What does this fold into?
Amino acid sequence: MSDPIQDKGALGDALAMAMHTAEAYLQRVDAARAGPAGIDEAAAAFASELKLPEHGSGTLSALQELVDRGLPGATASAGPRFFHFVTGGATPAALAADWLASAIDQNSFSWVSSPLGSRVERVAVAWLKDLFRLPASWGGVLTTGATMANFTGLAAGRRWWGLELGRDIDREGWSSLPPMPVLSSGYIHSSAVKALAMLGIGRESVRRFAADPSGRLDLEAFERALQSLNGRPAVVIATAGEVNAGDFDPVAAMAEIAHRHHAWLHVDGAFGLFARASSTALELAAGVDNADSVIADGHKWLNVPYDCGFAFVRDPELMHGTFALTGAPYLPVGTDERPSFGDRGPEASRRARALAVWATLRAYGSDGYREMIDRHIGLAQRVGRQVEAADDLELMAPVRINVVCFRWAPKGRTDEAADELNRRLGQAVLRDGRVYFGTTVYRGRVAFRPAIANWRTTEADADMIVDVTRELIDGQDWD
It folds into this structure.
């Protein structure tokens, strides 16, 4: 097989094969092991194929090979017991719309290239602001995920900082400017730090003010540090939903202090921003609407397919000032009514991910998302109670939202020995595969951090977290 046009007639059969394969997979995913046996070995079969074949095998043959060899190497991350990395699934509406987005293959960088993509993203961003109780006047854009959303929000903050010092950094660069002060708690996530590196601000620019080993903000030290700048502009990063235990920085207090001392407040709410869509956790994210930029992930609690994130900025012009596509007269200029979202975020070539966002919000509405998020928070609290009821399991932090941070605490073991046992237990959980969650280090000790974010997850699924952990502990010789 050579030129794809010779295989045009196979398209219908290829799409049918993909549909039937996906349908069969999703019909069994509720009962499937989250980490099927042999996935490493199956995926490794592709590792040696680094030389491109000269002659192609054709559409149907290549797709069949991917199905036969590839699916055994996939985790069941779409399923209800994949509790690693705060991973959501894909709602029926989102998945179907995402398939459609692939089929029509729009480049949603401008209203000219895709009137549909542009108009749907405009609505989707407005609906997301409603969901998160953010002001309608804010600017917004869909990104690939939290890292690029953080990049977008912090780029707007960097532009603001430069303008406060009389410099348009996006036109003139950094030359002769002092380092940009960046302050946070110990909760700051690696994706925000990575965004600072990509922006040229630097990973080591962040001053962290932690009151304890968990990273909780030392509010007084934070305010003293801002006060010591004597009114010079700075950027503050707050975290809504810390990854190890789901805790929140005091965003409302940070906003008041930051603005009193001439600082930009950016809120990384990759999953914690969804607290603002909840009836039980809303107060955790109080004050987010007083920030200057806010982000979240769509492929977490919104349950749209990878990849999807959102960035929201109080002053939309700051987004355009950084990301405008300039110097090419063939590119159209966007307006509020006919937006070009390639001028508002880092990507110029942009998949029409707004279709999945729009479809899932249209299908389930704010009430449906409130019910799902409240249900997940309730399931996490249920697991937390099960941990507390077990003699040799330790709940490392209160269950604030959807993350349960716990560890095995065998009696008579030193902390170092218990850490090693928890590492081994974590490997056993992944090998077993019935549930899927990994280890972390929290307050200096090895622990687990399963997170419930998939629309499919039920009480029976959540109960398996402690049940499987207990079974693996009791069923092995750990000496």
Observations:
- Residues 141 and 361 are 16 Å apart (CA to CA).
- The chain has 15 helices and eleven strands.
